[in-house]
Amino acid sequence: MSEKCSVIIEIQDLSFRWRPDGPTIVALDALHIERGEQIFIEGPSGSGKSTLLSLLAGVTTARHGSVRVLDRPLERLSGVERDHFRADHIGYVFQMFNLIPYLSVVDNVVLPCRFSRRRRDAAMARDGGLEQAARRLLAHLDMADDELLGRPVTSLSVGQQQRVAAARALIGSPELLIADEPTSSLDADRREAFVRLLFDECRDNGSTLVFVSHERSLEPLFHRTIRLADINRAASGDAAAA
Amino acid sequence: MAILGLAWKSLVNRRFTAALTVISIALSVTLLVGVERIRSETRSGFANTISGTDLIVGARSGPVQLLLYSVFRIGDATNNISWQSYQAIAQQSKVAWAVPLVLGDSHRGFRVLGTNHDYFEHYRYARQQPLAFDAGEPFDDLYDAVIGAEVAESLGYRLGDSITVAHGASDVSFTRHDDKPFRVAGILQRTGTPVDRTVHVGLEAIEAIHIDWRGGAPMPGARVSAEQARQLDLTPKTVTAVLLGLTSKVATFRVQRFINDYPQEALSAILPGVALTQLWDLIGIAENALLIVSAFVVVVGLFGMLSALLTGLNERRREMAILRSVGARPWHVFTLIMGEATFLTVLGIALGLALLHGLLFAAQPLIEGRFGLAITIGMPSTYELLLLGAVLLAGFVIGIVPAYRAYRLSLADGLSMRV
After folding, report:
1. Stated pTM of the model
2. H-type helices in chain A, by residue range?
3. Which residues of B touch A83 (CB under 8 A)?
4. Interface contact flag, B322 A100, Cβ < 8 Å
5. For chain B, how big is the Rg over CA atoms in Å?
6. Is some CB atom of chain A closer than 8 A to the CB atom of B317?
């Protein structure tokens, strides 16, 4: 079913607050993202970015309105179902500190396959093995060096860590890749290179990229930009609360 | 399960603190199982002290006291049994054998026991094991002595050596029977019982060395030489205790009643097994207390693990968020911490057992030599397995605390990175 639909994310009449009596953090009338799009979500801190990403990843759900990812209304799934859904369909890259310190580079990359049979099967089918899949993705992200792969992840540079995180988010070809300010800890000249690598891999994987950042310089690289401050009705009045 | 692999790798990554936790659990397990092992070995060694004897007879007193002086050579008899009473008992139709025991003297801290050849024939320890000679044979001459294995070892005696007996039980006694020295005629094999610490001589010998004594001191001016004593009547006038073997077990209570009701003298007959149990109940309290203390040491060890895991949690919230982002459920996070607690406990138990066996292996000859306690090194007993199971269960239960906290944190934090 998910193969057919062309809309990957559809949000309608969404309103979210952390506590019933707390301030509304996110209030969106509508948001559509098509399959295969590379979307730049731009917003200053306090515009409700983190909350929106939590809603998209199914970690939290809205009381009002609907968040449909791959045609699935997340608010109607149970916690366990949403965890399964995230494991199967979503790759996630954090701003920094993406890696489990006690796992090797390759073990970090194959981690999602330990929680999702679907992604494990996809990686096996494509590359013949989990380690091969990890190595292919790492090689595409300029991390082919065996010496580099043998090092403890904590000794990698921030840029290298982010590329390992990207490989992890992409393994097993999840339909949706969410990147939460993944370049903010990188040097300015490395940001664009990182984004271009991410584009290539998303295209290769057939993944939709939702890229959240406040770096307007990256904006022209994307298909489309969504300015959260403009569409989030809650952000204008109460920006500091997010 | 993949999450347990993660738990293991996370422990290996924090190997230093993990090792400290494991060591503290291991030491407490070593203590717990070690105390239990020694306890059960002492208990069985204790029960093995005397067997094959149906009744022990002495002057009227409590069973424990009678057992203590007649078998364990601890303390003194309040009163003796007259030779006539001994003979009357020995001649009972149901009595198969009656071994007289005379106590009171000592040799360099070891008790001297006066008895006869029947002792070597009928005394049994452990599972009906008779006494065996390492060298020599039972006393033949009046001034022959047969010494226990520990006496021989600690004093370095060989066959033919000459020894003198001191009057009374004290090593520093100034009153010695040095006019009538004994010759070591036999050395017994080790038994792990008080026999090892005993110097055995004939009943007549005891009589002979006291023949010129009155009221605990040599009579001035009336010395009887060793050779002169041989010519005199050395039939003892009293004995301290008697070991009885009966023709049938069924007769035990009848003979016991006969002795307890013996009209000419106030006597007691006790069943060795019952008295051993009573005595054990008395001293077993201390060992129980020791076991309880070691159990608390285990709890302290496990609380060390609890605090190590709990303190680690705050630094690990980022790790939890990463796991959640790749699809781990809060339940996985719970299992991760639970797995770590279980690994730590299991490793602690394994290391503790290894440590205990290493220690026992090293100390076994020493313990056996010093205390006559043969500690078996082998698979844990059922009760020990039960104790280890309890430790594992306790580790599991204690692991629930940090695991549940991690579970709550990961639910609350979601994907937010709290550093």
Report:
1. 0.76
2. 49-56, 79-89, 105-115, 117-127, 130-140, 146-149, 158-170, 188-205, 228-231, 233-237
3. 324, 327-330
4. yes
5. 31
6. no
Q: Write out residues 77-116 of B within 8 Å (CB-CB) of A.
A: none
Query: What is the predicted pLDDT for the residue at B119?
Result: 93
Q: Do the chains contact at A94 and B9, CB–CB below 8 Å?
A: no
Is A2 contained in some domain? no
- CB of A226 within 8 Å of a chain B CB? The answer is no
CB-CB neighbours of B179 under 10 Å:
14
For residue A80, the chain B residues in CB contact (below 8 A) are 329, 331
Name the domain count of chain A. 1
Q: Does A116 touch chain B (CB under 8 A)?
A: yes
Q: Which of B94, B99, B90 is nearest to B124 (CA)?
A: B99
Q: What is the pLDDT of residues B227-273, one digit of tens each?
A: 888 888 888 989 999 999 999 888 899 999 999 999 999 999 999 98
- For residues A59 and B242, give the distance between their C-alpha atoms in angstroms, rounded to a whole number: 85
Nearest by CB to B326, which of A54, A96, A111? A111
Determine, for residues A115 and B13 on separate chains, whether the beta-carbon distance falls below 8 Å. no
pLDDT of the residue at A1: 42
The residue among B316, B326, B343, B408 with the most chain A CBs within 10 A of its CB, best to mutate, is B326
Give the chain B residue whose CA is nearest to the CA of A153. Answer: B13
Indicate yes or no: CB of B414 within 8 angstroms of CB of A100.
no
Give residue A25's domain range: 7-241
Q: Tokens for A194?
A: 């990182």
A-B Cβ pairs (cutoff 8 Å, strict): 72
Per the CB < 8 A criterion, the answer to whether A207 and A171 are in contact is no
- How large is the average pLDDT for residues A154-179? 90
The DSSP call for residue B219 is P
Q: Which of B77, B76, B50 is nearest to B272 (CA)?
A: B50
pLDDT of amino acid B380: 83
Angle at A185 between CA A181 and CA A190, to 5 degrees: 95
Give the tens place of pLDDT for each residue, B275-314: 988 888 888 888 888 889 989 999 998 998 999 899 888 8
Do the Cβ atoms of A53 and B324 come within 8 Å? no
B415 touches chain A (CB under 8 A): yes
Residue of A nearest to B325 (CA): A92
- The answer to whether position A19 is within a domain reads yes
Element (H, E) at B7: helix B2-13
Asked if the Cβ–Cβ distance from B326 to A168 is below 8 Å, we say yes
Contact A79 B323 (CB under 8 A): no
**B202 CB contacts (<8 Å, ≥6 apart)?**
B114, B115, B116, B139, B142, B144
Instruction: Work out the average pLDDT over B175-187.
Output: 87
Domain at A71, CATH number: 3.40.50.300
Collapsing DSSP to helix, strand or coil, A235 comes out as helix
Q: What is the largest CA-CA distance in chain B?
A: 105
Residue of B nearest to A100 (CA): B319
- Residue A215 resides in a domain: yes
In a domain, A211, yes or no: yes
Beta strands in B116-188 (DSSP E): 124-125, 129-130, 133-136, 144-147, 162-163, 182-188
The ipTM, to two decimals, is 0.86
- Please write the tens of the pLDDT for every residue from B111-138: 999 999 999 999 988 778 899 999 999 9
